[in-house]
Design goal:
The structure is a homodimer. The first copy, chain A, has nine helices and 14 strands. By secondary structure, the first copy, chain A, is an alpha+beta fold. The longest helix of chain A is centred in the first third of the chain and has 18 residues.
Chain lengths: 336, 336
């Protein structure tokens, strides 16, 4: 019998990733903090609440419209901290370099890292560099691990979600995935689609200041909006209903998705967040978001519903209903 | 002109690694904590002293006598925290898997991680998994980032080193590098050499409890004892003199090094530490070390000298003197 092997789809952020984590990693490594499977792990020490998150970046190509692997490695980890309501403080960085990688390109990546870290107000305080032989890696892989501080009173958790909660997104979806994909495939559009890569702590900080009614934040990276929403409802006694009409999808992204045969709901974002909030607190949160440069296009896109539980459904433009399942294949490998 | 490229030797932990870090990474990313280039970065927050360290593990082969990449990924990071005098608390873990990697091998690695983490008393609270296509990675790379707590009064730093300080090692050198190398090359010895991979916080904790005269701890991993000692003296106004006769080198390692053309002083260890301590505090520290299972073979191997500054010299068995430079080539690629 052919042994089971790792497939590209295990890294898609979709159903196979989810199963691998739930079945292979979580049982042996189980502890209550890891088990939350949140974007950031939160723990307390001597009365101080801290958050840790880790991500390896293997995006291909390493340079794409609107960013590069260095910028992504900083923003991505800062954003995971922000999703935990944590102010980013420090990052560590680990490079795995492929023999033959031009130092000039490494300098460009490191400069991006520098600029992004300054923009986010974080210091990189620990690092590591490994080199693997040609053909045993691919140019550069970067791991960043972030440490952040969570203020008292901030509680962002799936447990706080209630039926009736409104679901908000801070702008157009699918731009990062499409920017990387068109660059990789050598496709050209009249208006090149840029990655939305952006650091979100500033926006989150304003949202937290505006209302205590913020229940959960998630960033729809690998696997996109549909996958993240499925993670939220998974195993819970509530569902989610999205309004297709409300989804902010840019025209260029829609066209590119048509051409590439992709569904923008499953395409990665790197500057977007999805917020679940108490219905009577939507107004102050929306107001705070729209005042921020990364929140101008904020929209309410759906709400938490009682039935069907554990499912994400979408009311389509024509009035029908579509089930949005988890990503099952490998729609976009190495997108982050 | 041919562009400058990453060489395998940039990952050796030797001179090229050192230069890459000093010249390419450090200037743009500079901050006072990173600049210490210590095994663990120490910072304070609300009166609490914490330590962070990060390491990516790319060892080839992933299974070797005495351990595997999973065990290494836990011990290595726990040990870097211990070298900062930090009690290990939490780890994050990031996997980069190659398409086609057998799930059965991944399970074995994850089980090693579990056992090693339990042994070290650390919880893995954050994780990430990426997959790269066949031929763009090599089975599995693992990043672990560790967070530890440093007790008040613990100060381990190059700044504390004084001329006359004794240099101590907790046992035989070169075993990890030789175990990996013989496995990789398919060499067989009557008594197979096992990696010395071991978690060192328990030993360090006893040393810290025994004396305030401990000035610095370093673990001689990549690049071995000679490289780490060169890092310590680099740019400083003191030197180091080792006694060849005192160096604990096992017979099998000595033979294997002969055959492989390696110098055990440059071969990686994963369960060794080098301690610099005040001469009048050597006795209590030695006593504490020898009581610990990982310190039974502890030896004083040299001392800090005034001249020549910035150099590591070795008094050889026949009474001569040998300069131990930094590793300049790539003696042992992918050893950790």
């Amino acid at each position: 019998m052919e042994p089971e092997r790792i497939l590209l789809a295990h890294g898609s952020g979709g159903k196979l990733s989810y199963d691998l984590i739930r079945e292979l990693f979580l049982p042996p490594l189980h502890n209550p903090i890891l088990a939350t499977l949140a974007d950031a792990a939160i723990f307390s020490r001597q009365g101080m609440r801290l958050a840790i998150t880790t991500d390896s970046y293997v995006v291909d190509p390493i340079f794409f419209p609107g960013g590069d692997i260095g910028k992504l490695a900083i923003y991505g980890t800062v954003n995971d901290l922000a999703m935990g309501g944590a102010k980013p403080l420090y990052l560590s960085i680990g490079f795995i370099l492929e023999e033959g990688f031009p130092l000039e390109e490494l300098r460009v990546v490191v400069n991006s890292i520098k600029e992004a870290a300054q923009q986010c107000g974080v210091d990189i305080i620990a690092g590591d560099t490994k080199v693997v032989p040609r053909g045993k890696g691919d140019k550069v892989f970067i791991n960043t691990t972030g440490l952040g501080a969570v203020s008292e009173g901030v509680e962002l958790s799936v447990d706080r979600i209630c039926v009736g909660d409104k679901i908000i997104i801070n702008g157009f979806i699918g731009e990062h995935g499409i920017a990387v994909m068109t660059q990789r495939e050598g496709l050209e559009f009249d208006t090149p689609i840029k990655s939305d890569a952006a650091p979100l702590w500033g926006l989150v900080s304003q949202m937290l200041g505006a209302s205590q009614g913020l229940h959960l934040l998630r960033d729809p990276t690998r696997g996109g909006v549909a996958t993240v929403l499925n993670e939220v409802v998974g195993g819970n006694d509530f569902g989610i209903r999205l309004e297709e009409e409300a989804l902010p999808i840019g025209e260029e992204v829609a066209v590119a998705c048509e051409i590439l045969g992709l569904d923008p709901l499953y395409v990665a974002n790197e500057g977007k967040l999805i917020a679940f909030c108490q219905p009577d607190e939507v107004e102050p949160i929306l107001k705070a978001m729209k005042r921020h440069p990364y929140g101008r296009e904020t929209k309410v896109i759906g709400e938490v519903v009682a039935a069907p539980p554990g499912k994400v459904i979408m009311k389509t433009r024509v009035g029908g209903t579509r089930l949005l399942d988890m990503l099952t294949g490998e729609q976009l490998p190495r997108i982050c």
